[in-house]
Amino acid sequence: MEVKQFQAESKRLLEMMINSIYTQREIFLRELISNASDAIDKIYYKALTDDNLVFDKDNYFVKISVDKDNRTLIVSDTGIGMTPEELEANLGVIAKSGSLAFKKETELKDGHDIIGQFGVGFYSAFMVADTVKVISRALGSDKAYAWESQGADGYTITEATKDSVGTDIYMKIKENTEDDNYDEFLEQYRLRAIIKKYSDFIKYPIKMEMTSSRPKEDAEGEFEEYTEEQTLNSMVPIWRRNRNELTDQDYTNFYNEKRYGFDQPLKHIHISADGAVVYRSILYIPGSIPFDFYSKEYEKGLELYSNGVLIMEKSSDLLPDYFSFVKGMVDSEDLSLNISREMLQHDRQLKLIAKNIKNRIKSTLQTMLKDERDNYLKFYESFGRQLKFGVYNDYGANKEELQDLLMFYSSKEEKLVTLAEYVERMPEEQKYIYYATGPSIERIARLPQTELVADKGYEILYLTEDIDEFAIKIIAAYKEKEFRSVSGGDLGIEQETQDEATEQANEENKELFEQMSSLLANKVKSVRVSKRLRSHPVCLTAEGEVTIEMEKVLSQMPDNQNVQAEKVLEVNVNHSIFQALKKVHTEDQEKFELYTNLLYNQALLIEGLPIEDPVQFTNDMCKVMAE
Ligand SMILES: Nc1ncnc2c1ncn2[C@@H]1O[C@H](COP(=O)(O)OP(=O)(O)OP(=O)(O)O)[C@@H](O)[C@H]1O
């Protein structure tokens, strides 16, 4: 018998195939099942134009069989089969796709489902098998032929026997090696899992004999093994079904089955797009935070299917980082796959799909915010932080996109409000959107710095998360209203008389403040009269870009660069303590120093900043108490 050689290029290609195209061996089964499905499709398409052919769906299926003793895995189909010429042309020439040719010949227009296009998938069988034997009988022929090969050395084609039309592929599974376990491809449960993973939505049944055990009927406590043929795939994917046929429960079941999450999703979005790019997608907003969501380990992405066949488990290009919490899948016929189907050529279609998806997620969130506030609040509690990161990242490139989805706690409403709601309520004369930062709502509410703005009756946004102020700073202004920290410089609400009084007090006490400043040199940039304090004696504010809250956040970062806010100690000259300070300033220098340090440390404490020398601080307190 003549052993035919693969064409020279094919030989090298085959080696490449076996060793480097695919990263995961298990996909060989996906490729063979896709070929089987294509072969059945071809009969179906032929039947459309050939009156002598009747396509009865019940007669068409794929069957997986295992012969463990002979280490053989068999993939059979009742498809169109191959003539010896086709065996030669399709399996003897790598990168020749009979399926692609079929599509062209029959001039199938959009909507066809044939998967094969590159003419390489079949050879992935050599990743797991030493020998591959294909026995095929073509439609309309009563003869069968066998194509057999052990890889790069070539192949033979001989006559064979086969009772019915179709193709059986026998794979002699490789022996295990120290590093590689091939036995798994002879285990029924492992095979079932691979089929479920990649080929669940192949539209013809994929059958396999499954062995299970059950209690014996006549002998209590004893079990017996039994075998039955099962169909392993779900066939019709939920995303191809009509939205109005599906219940919330159907969507939740799919979410749980696909292991997108084990919780109850908060919202689902079902898209059937037939515009510039045709795709279907089901997206979910999870009901709770995945345990690793805010960690480096979390991988965003959507499952990507091409014609119902899984191509990628996590296609990260389909989701922007700020919507990384979204789970789900996309199926499209329009993707330009690369040869391994593991990657896509980064093409226009994918970008278009990603853009559409992003817009749909955004509009869904906006609608939720408008019509289902409680649901939105639940979402925001879990993933609001991610949106804020989204605003901040990439130098604010996405702030316009996201700012209307943000919420912050309002001092007046005592609940989360949007920026639009805040601005809507602003009295006409209010210049800025005010905010205050701190570790908790309660702590912020008691901050001395909020006094003036609160007295004025203005609403203050309380920022409690480390990312908040960074996000606000990058937004800078909302509907032309700038943001202003209550601890920042100009609050825009000083009245003229007050300004004059402050100037005067600064002037009168110039020497006192200068002395305080030099006592606190390296700690604060200056000491001055406060315009914002009402009942508290002192507070710290910051000048320049870095606020005190930002200094705190940055100091927690792993690459702490010791960024410092330019702090100002503000003193309330209307507070009784200031009179005491004035008195010691003229009478007792030692006490003046003591009071200055105490006041500075108090201001630090209120801000939640650490005191440099707590022992000294308590000693100073004792000194004052013991008087
Ligand atoms: N089970 C089968 N029944 C009938 N023809 C088959 C079968 N398996 C493979 N073929 C033929 O062999 C050709 C080559 O198959 P192969 O899997 O290498 O490539 P493909 O399916 O065309 O493309 P891709 O690399 O995209 O999967 C197919 O195009 C098809 O014509």
Automatic annotation (TrEMBL):
- Family per UniProt? Belongs to the heat shock protein 90 family.
Q: What is its main location?
A: cytoplasm
Q: Where is it located?
A: Cytoplasm
Q: Where is this region: C?
A: 553-627
Q: Pfam families given for it? A: HATPase_c_3, HSP90
Question: What subunit structure does UniProt give?
Answer: Homodimer.
Question: What UniProt keywords are attached to this protein's entry?
Answer: ATP-binding, Chaperone, Cytoplasm, Nucleotide-binding, Stress response
The protein's matches in Gene3D superfamilies, at most eight in alphabetical order, are given as: 3.30.230.80, 3.40.50.11260, Heat shock protein 90, C-terminal domain, Histidine kinase-like ATPase, C-terminal domain
Q: What is the lineage of its organism?
A: Bacteria, Bacillati, Bacillota, Bacilli, Bacillales
The coiled-coil segments of this chain are none
Origin organism is Paenibacillus yanchengensis
- State what protein this is by name: Chaperone protein HtpG
* HAMAP family associated with the record: HSP90 (MF_00505)
Primary role: Molecular chaperone. Has ATPase activity.
Using the UniProt annotation, give all residue ranges assigned to the region (A). 1-341
